[in-house]
Amino acid sequence: MTQAREVRTTCPYCGVGCGVLAKVAADGAVTVRGDPLHPANFGRLCSKGSALAEIIDLDGRLLHPEIGGKRTNWDDALDLVASKFSQAIEKHGSDSVAFYVSGQLLTEDYYLANKLMKGFIGSANIDTNSRLCMSSSVAGHRRAFGSDTVPGTYEDLEKADLVVLVGSNLAWCHPVLYQRIVAAKDKRPGMKIVVIDPRRTMTADIAEMHLAIAPDGDVALFSGLLGYLAAKDRLNRDYIAAHTNGFDEALAAAPSLADVAAWTELSPETLSAFYALFAASEKTVTVYSQGVNQSVSGTDKVNAIINCHLATGRIGKPGAGPFSITGQPNAMGGREVGGLANMLAAHMDIENSEHRDRVQRFWASPAIAEKPGLKAVDLFRAVGDGRIKALWIMATNPVDSMPEADAVQAALAACPFVVVSDVLARTDTARHAHVRLPAAGWGEKDGTVTNSERRISRQRAFLPLPGEARPDWRIIADVARRMGFAEAFDHQHQAAVFAEHAALSDFENGGARDFDIGRYAGIDAEAYEAMQPFQWPARPEGRESIRFFDNGHFYTPDRKARFIAVRAHEKAAPNPAYPLTLNTGRIRDHWHTMTRTGKSPRLSQHIAEPFAEIHPLDAALHGIADADLVRLESPHGSVVVRALVTMRQRRGSVFAPMHWTDQFASNARIDTLAPAVVDPISGQPASKKIDIRMHKL
Ligand code: SF4
Predict the structure, then answer these.
(1) Where is the 4Fe-4S Mo/W bis-MGD-type domain (predicted)?
(2) What is the 3-state secondary structure (H, E, C) of 185-201?
């Protein structure tokens, strides 16, 4: 009998990135507890993290490679993938192929996928489900700071006198971070919380103020705040003069209080109370999440928030700053390796020829991508209209999670060649694969992830690889070698991939970019195994190591931050055929399309079936009573869910979670309702403002 052992790893769910201790008993039974030494959670775990041991069984797993639904061996599967991609590239060009990857991948997987597509295939057609999560924040950061830098840390939230949570149900979606704020507020009852959300979520229960804002009212709200700060002489004019550009233009775009009230549907008194609190609280952190990002004006919302922090100099200081919280465990790691179609590795810019040249020389690659590739929505459109001849989907389920999900399904069904690498055999996406490749899951693979505060932590294996499953990085390297790139993909260990990623971050850099983990460039397998969680930048000895922006220097050419003049769009007239607004989101105990959390009966006890939160007056208008079955319809699809009539919902709005698929409930795929409408700058879909109608079944 083997001895019991405990392995230090990281939770695979949300962007908080909690440390987990996984104990494997002598009989093989696994239990988990929070890692008391991990700086993200100090021993805490939420309900999902606590149930991790319940989702690691092999039920439903893809354990062998398959071609055409039939078991095959790795060599045949990999040969076919490599030859189909090579043939498509040869016949139709490098932009005829694409990868759609995931914030669930580890950084090492993400790095090699990006390297293969951008540096060796020579296309930037690699996008990720993180496009659906935080790409508006990326775009907003780059506009304001010249870099995709998240300046905040979790400690800042605990040190703040005012925490403003915008479009963020932290209590359910980032529970351990929420617990940290609750604990900080218990210690310092003077700390104030404001929640800005159309819906009164559980998060609002600890807030001094809940602003039930009209959907997409955030640009007006924060532009109005900028105007208020100027009118009340609460600006930091020295900071604005020394460290920023564009203030006057941004201020000129600020609406009047009356206009803000009209846009947000908040009373002037409520607005003034919030503005006064913000103006008076030097230590303010503004946290934003999907309610900000998933919008046609997501990037403008981010910049409207950042503008207020720049105008008050509340950035780069303890307890102050704008703070984007990511949804997925490794959305940040994906950004670091350039896993978005419009980015290059190590936070370099694909549209900058010097950056392209630098990355190409580092990789010694034959064909660097010359222009941004297709972002997620456009990528699946290109699959649908036949421009993409070969598509590889890794660790994600777009048939259920993309907007216009039925159109995505039809596109995959018509695509000449689809590869899916996943842990599960029969997701709604995997059903459409010509080749299925069995990937290693959480607990079986080794690598790194980066959480929302830029902290890189190890995920460690504590289980044997089941069947013939392989880590994703290895599958990608196996295909790359077969495509003729053996030398550049000869990594024998995940540590070698991480070391290369770290070396690229420091290559001809000299600390000139924000993302720099050059200290790890020479890391070997032993040191990688022992790696402790750390935050970047992690620069070589003697090089400046900083709290971002504490010196007032940004990553723009003149080192000054940029105000962006943002204006609220005209309010769209109500759509008489679809008069209600659907807001989609997560619930506390399920994750994404439930491929893992759906395995735990304990997690399903919290909320057992798909539902829609409806305001009592809307329910009455439609003859709907609590617990009735209702049909929600948009021009793109329809679903059937249980009515939950509640005053927590705004009049005219409906909330429904995005988790359920046909595997768990029939006719409840919420993303079939969402239109493929995106923010024009970030390309992020607007999943929180969907025109629908409803009726009782
Ligand atoms: Fe995992 Fe997020 Fe819960 Fe932490 S808060 S245990 S990272 S799901």
Answers:
(1) 4-60
(2) HHHCCCCEEEEECCCCC
Distance, CA of 331 to CA of 106 (rounded, Å): 9
Q: What is the ipTM of this complex?
A: 1.00
CA distances from 339 to 38, 61, 101, 276, 540 (A): 26, 26, 8, 40, 25
171 lines ligand 1 (CB under 6 A): no
Superfamily of domain 5-55: ADC-like domains (2.20.25.90)
- The superfamily CATH assigns to domain 135-325 is Dimethylsulfoxide Reductase, domain 2 (3.40.228.10)
Whether 17 lines ligand 1, by a CB cut-off of 6 Å, is yes
Q: How large a percentage of the chain has pLDDT more than 70?
A: 100
Q: Report how far residue 432's alpha carbon sits from residue 428's, in angstroms, rounded to the nearest whole number.
A: 8
Q: Is 381 helix (H, G, I), strand (E, B) or coil?
A: helix
User: CA-based diameter of the chain, in Å?
Assistant: 73
Decide: 50 and 41 in contact? Cβ < 8 Å: no
Structure-token match 């092999």, residue found: 58
User: Per the structure block, which two tokens stand in for 361?
Assistant: 């020389």
Domain span(s) for CATH 2.40.40.20 in the chain:
580-696
Q: Is 20 in the pocket of ligand 1 (CB under 6 A)?
A: no
pLDDT at 99 over 70: yes
The reply to whether ligand 1 has any atom less than 6 angstroms from the CB of 18 is yes
Chain segment 617-668, per-residue pLDDT in tens: 999 999 999 999 999 999 999 999 999 999 999 999 999 999 988 888 878 8
- Ligand 1 atom 3: residue of nearest CA: 46
Q: Is 66 helix (H, G, I), strand (E, B) or coil?
A: strand
**Overall average pLDDT of the 358-380 stretch:** 97
**pLDDT tens digits for 416-438?**
999 999 999 989 999 999 999 99
Confidence of residue 117 (pLDDT cuts 50, 70, 90): very high
Q: Which atom of ligand 1 is nearest to the CA of 451?
A: 7
Token representation of residue 610: 């798909």
pLDDT at 1: 58
- Three-state DSSP at 205 gives helix
